[in-house]
Amino acid sequence: MPVNSFENYPMSWKPRMPDADQTLYLAIAEQLEKDIESGILLPGTKLPPQRELADYLDINVSTISRAFKVCEKKGLLSGTVGSGTFVAYDASAKPYLSPEYDAPRLIEMGSVFPEATPQEEANTLLRKILLEKDFGKLFQYGRPEGVLWQKEAAVKLISKAGYDTAAEMLLPASGGQNAIAAILAGLFKPGDRIGTDPITYPGFKTAAKMLGVQLVPVRQENGEISEEGLIYAVRNEKIKGIYIMPDYQNPTTHMMSEEGRKMIARVAREHNLIVIEDGIHSLLNEHPQKAVAAYAPEQTLYIASLSKTVAPGLRLAYIATPEKYRSALSGALYNINLSLSPFLLELASRMMASKDAEKLIETHRRLTRKRSRIINKYLGGYSVLGSDECIFRWLLLPEGFTGEHFEKLAHDAGVSVYAAERFAVGKAKPPAAVRLAVAAPDSEEELVKALKILGKILSRTEL
Amino acid sequence: MPVNSFENYPMSWKPRMPDADQTLYLAIAEQLEKDIESGILLPGTKLPPQRELADYLDINVSTISRAFKVCEKKGLLSGTVGSGTFVAYDASAKPYLSPEYDAPRLIEMGSVFPEATPQEEANTLLRKILLEKDFGKLFQYGRPEGVLWQKEAAVKLISKAGYDTAAEMLLPASGGQNAIAAILAGLFKPGDRIGTDPITYPGFKTAAKMLGVQLVPVRQENGEISEEGLIYAVRNEKIKGIYIMPDYQNPTTHMMSEEGRKMIARVAREHNLIVIEDGIHSLLNEHPQKAVAAYAPEQTLYIASLSKTVAPGLRLAYIATPEKYRSALSGALYNINLSLSPFLLELASRMMASKDAEKLIETHRRLTRKRSRIINKYLGGYSVLGSDECIFRWLLLPEGFTGEHFEKLAHDAGVSVYAAERFAVGKAKPPAAVRLAVAAPDSEEELVKALKILGKILSRTEL
DNA sequence: AAATTTGTCTATTTACATTTC
DNA sequence: GGAAATGTAAATAGACAAATT
Predict the structure, then answer these.
(1) Which H/E stretch holds residue A356?
(2) Domain limits at B416?
(3) A1-49: per-residue pLDDT in tens?
(4) Rounded to two decimals, what is the model's pTM?
(5) How far apart are CA B162 and CA B277, in angstroms?
(6) A235 touches strand C (CB under 7 A)
(7) Which of A98, A127, A334 is nearest residue B96 as measured by Cβ atoms?
(8) Cβ contact (<8 Å) for A313 and B142?
(9) Which of A419, B30, B152, B197 could, after both became Cys, cross-link A407 (CB 3.0–4.6 A)?
(10) Residue A194 is part of a domain; what is its CATH number?
């Protein structure tokens, strides 16, 4: 790790002594924050030891420590006993990530939308419901937790994603992001830590940041969290939970191995970790693997969402929760949503109960495969991870590019893609890669156009 | 304030010295929490001074202070320099409040539902939309912020609630509670303080508690926040914002005076307070007063919700926000919801754009007035605050009752009502009163039955 | 109006645990 | 594998400011 090759030489950061009238630790924290934001301190930089800084300013170590703590809470730093304190890679991350709607005609391959074809199935079903049901009632408040048959319909669908659960374990949320926010707000406190892949879903990062929950990258082996890394994080980083997306991990597209799943389940049981399993893409898979939740139902909050696989506009997700977390989670959902729209619940549930949801999924799969073939054709010469059912791909960049740089080049050429840097957690160094949202461009023609542009950028490696 | 009449005599709380192997301040906090929860320490009790406790245990004051801080963060205590530390009145409050669906046939007058009649208007409108629109599109992701004409429709309706705003100020949320959660999560940090009425909306309390935001009761005069009290809270309690419900304050039904509104606007401008104005009931009023937001648009987040006045199931609210808070708030909404259902947005917007929303409101008013007359008839002999358009009432109890006691008696007799204690903030002592949800019982017959029961309890003051 | 009571905040002392060499 | 480096956490001392008397 050649972080500072001429160790101990000039201090990598020299704070000035604040004026006497300011609060010492806050003033130092502020200087540090400014220097990180302005780019004077680059991501990955190792800061001088706390003692050294304390000596330099002739103050106490703890005062430096406290200043660092302030910045760490903001996600700017991450420190490890013995190895020192580092500037985080995602320090300059925006508080949230959303597609640039008003951008001057960018082709969207950044935000992951599912296929955007008009959905005749939804149309038909909706008409059917409206004709038969006295749905004036559906515009009253709903029961916060929905009714039984609706949950049973969900259980059926979730089993197709690799997890056999039960109706009484389910709590409905208003989409996957809503489920994440509720879990973080209800089960974690500010300052709590959660382990994640070193490169993870930005929606989780931003929600955690907003709620003051710290994310800790867990060391990987073969593209997935390793036992050694996880145990380390439990012991030394005091993580209280772990966030995983075993199927088509966002953004790396990695499918977690069966051993990996069993290992996480086992370690979670042994150390009473809360596992947040995001099954958002699991239904993309025709032959699902068993969910981690299946191996450790008592530890796992399993999020099943319809957005990416059935219809995004339905805003419905279910959280399968063990009894011990149920009341806290249900309270959080109440605090965030009060209740869900009974109308959408009814609609989504009917789709699940009938075969309509599955038909929609099948349609999505077909369209995605078609687009994948286009990608394979145009970017055939490069490393593009991900299988043909996946609605996004992970493009490993050739020597000479960083993700950030490539994102910028693509943006200037009219294509929006997201660089690895956007997904990085803490001091984990992001690889040179970008995520491509397969289904986001409005049409296949647009997709082809975008791929040609990307191909051009890739080929003239001499920047 | 006869809190402890034989001052200084026996210490009101004597902690035991924790074992040496425990963390001192945590162990003390734990004892304190247990004693409060078990009822050994009653709400309102004044704790011994920190120094006295420190002497008693022969440890440092700061250690006690830190232990107290832990409990204060949990909302169990509230301390003021000079006057001491008190056990909070809402210490034993549940993390959330929701109707007891599975209760053995209680008549619901606790949770405030609007009138539950089947709504032919919604029905008709919905059919219309479905027949004309290609609404397969409505099941895609929506733009997080909705489109312009939809916002303009909302502007029109909000002006009927007493606030003339502009489309570009609006951000949609998934209902009023969702708006509150987003504001708290996006604009406040854990530990920040917000001033409220001493008796306030429990949904705000629980959301604040979950997010670690402290609530501070602001002193009142004539049933509304006083200037003196507000300035005190700014100076001495360091409140960063204030939460108000100027129209039909929940639960006291108080309508804030024009002077009160102007005063809050002025103080907020002078001290850069964030005003959270909850207009959830404003549309109940046929001749609205000007909103506080109208006097201080630069300081105010105005929440306009359709739930209580149009249709609860639509789950739609708008937040009118000044530019300076917009991006933080929009980020928070993204983190919590990702996006809203474009279908519900479209539906609600059409209702607002046409006259349908107003028709529904009118229908609600009519039904509420009818029920109010029933209340007036059966509880005529008692002090029942609130006007006939209001969907809840505030029953001041005769001598000899506390709210909590009355709630229990009513519950045992088959009627659910909410006692003042549920609404109390911090060490504010709740009055002897209960809230009656006028429109919640399923039918007028049920309402009458409930009122007869309540009347009986009230009359035998000899408990 | 001054003195006292009372909670709060910051910087420090000290002990500790993990990592690195 | 032991010593040194390094970050973390608890308890304390002391200064401060508001409220009460």
Answers:
(1) helix A356-378
(2) 107-118+359-458
(3) 333 333 345 788 888 888 888 889 999 999 999 998 888 888 888 899 9
(4) 0.91
(5) 12
(6) yes
(7) A334
(8) yes
(9) A419
(10) 3.40.640.10
